[in-house]
Amino acid sequence: MKIDPNSSADLSVQIAQAIKDAIISGELIVDERLPSEAELSDHFQVSRPTVREALKRLAAQSLIRTQRGASGGAFVNRLSFEDAYAQQVTTSTLLLSMNEVSFDTACEARYALERACAPLSAERRSADHLATMRAEIFRQGQPGLTDVAFCASDVAFHRALVDGARNPVLSYQLAGAVEAMQPLMNMITFTARDRAVITGLHTRIADAIEAGDGGAAAAGLQDLECETRKLASDVFAARAQR
Amino acid sequence: MKIDPNSSADLSVQIAQAIKDAIISGELIVDERLPSEAELSDHFQVSRPTVREALKRLAAQSLIRTQRGASGGAFVNRLSFEDAYAQQVTTSTLLLSMNEVSFDTACEARYALERACAPLSAERRSADHLATMRAEIFRQGQPGLTDVAFCASDVAFHRALVDGARNPVLSYQLAGAVEAMQPLMNMITFTARDRAVITGLHTRIADAIEAGDGGAAAAGLQDLECETRKLASDVFAARAQR
DNA sequence: TGACATTTAAAAGTCTGACATTTAGAATCT
DNA sequence: AGATTCTAAATGTCAGACTTTTAAATGTCA
């Protein structure tokens, strides 16, 4: 682990990069303890606060975790699926909210990816996944449900569908696509009629999954995508006119 | 922006979270300047180094950028697709390398997602995307190409395929799935025969894309997935036996 | 001997205050 | 008016001290 004393980049950035590289290259392995802050500041010939800023950068990315007390220190963190999932959702959400991505673009990406999960989910889903999907469909039919709660239930339904593929990598990748849409979906007001159409499609998808028919599930998702885009365009058109 | 003085969590973590929440909620908008470090330390009643650690955490996630000098400070950063893309690749790569994800699982996820792009790419790809695919296929046929270079070219081919869908959200989502596989692919040694089979499939896929036949492209990807998994299992079997 | 309480030291977390460096903008000069 | 210099504000860095947490070593007693 070395830094370039001639570089114009901030020291804390350089140090963070050096440690990150060491982790990625395998020089530092999971759960290995990094030198203490005092040792690091000595090694890199910088002050302790500078080292700390570098460590905080890494901690923010879940690359390391710190522990206080004797035999404490900074440890290389095993990036868990949960952590990666959370990061993925945050990044995707911010990306969509900050870049004027059109609803259609986001929607298209989401459903394209989700359709890819359908055949796997139809083949492998557990009874639990199916039960979750049914339960969410039931919830979506309850009167008095707010639009936000309806959207949240929609996300839960789709998560169950994706998780049904029993591929953690796929679930992780889809997390962003599905959840980042929620703020966009929350801008839509769903009439009772809209909800009926959507839950009808959900039922059709769940039935297909239950029957092990991935093609039918994908077709249902296709229709759901059309429906969602139509709904959104109506809402945005009405809003633009006002 | 408030912090809970009774919380046991580290102050810098709390402050980072408070600012992050303000950004996500829209209280702070893109390119808005945060208060100076001195003002923040005054506001939160903590010292400047503590505030700085919080800011470094946010900078590590590309949520803010800092500028030195007069009228400098920390600004809410517009998360660009490039930044998000880079984060996505790093996270995915670490996730796979640290969690003993089987080759099959990663491979399945990657090709399932990629097949989802095929119809869109067949419909929308520009001449440029197609040219890139052809160029990479040509490179893959060159003798004397190292295995690592072959894998890199493979990634470039698939990126062109994905980008052909002309949906930046999709490209971003796929970035992790495709690039994170590279270290795993690099563990495979490709015989001349293997390469011929792969480039043959690549050609078939490119032809289908050129013809606008998304179904055929997806089928080609399906076969490529099978081929890749077979190759990998052979390599791992041979390695286990030794 | 073994279980429990106490001490101790190491390490992260935090604070204070200072100085260095960068940079935009104001002031000045030609 | 335009170029140059000055200035002040802000981040970047440093040094050293103190606080809090935590595990391990030590000591004590049944």
UniProtKB/TrEMBL annotation, chains A, B:
<feature type="domain" description="HTH gntR-type">
    <location>
        <begin position="9"/>
        <end position="79"/>
    </location>
</feature>
<dbReference type="InterPro" id="IPR036390">
    <property type="entry name" value="WH_DNA-bd_sf"/>
</dbReference>
<keyword id="KW-0805">Transcription regulation</keyword>
<keyword id="KW-0238">DNA-binding</keyword>
<protein>
    <submittedName>
        <fullName>GntR family transcriptional regulator</fullName>
    </submittedName>
</protein>
<dbReference type="InterPro" id="IPR011711">
    <property type="entry name" value="GntR_C"/>
</dbReference>
<dbReference type="Pfam" id="PF00392">
    <property type="entry name" value="GntR"/>
</dbReference>
<dbReference type="InterPro" id="IPR000524">
    <property type="entry name" value="Tscrpt_reg_HTH_GntR"/>
</dbReference>
<dbReference type="InterPro" id="IPR036388">
    <property type="entry name" value="WH-like_DNA-bd_sf"/>
</dbReference>
<dbReference type="Pfam" id="PF07729">
    <property type="entry name" value="FCD"/>
</dbReference>
<dbReference type="InterPro" id="IPR008920">
    <property type="entry name" value="TF_FadR/GntR_C"/>
</dbReference>
<keyword id="KW-0804">Transcription</keyword>
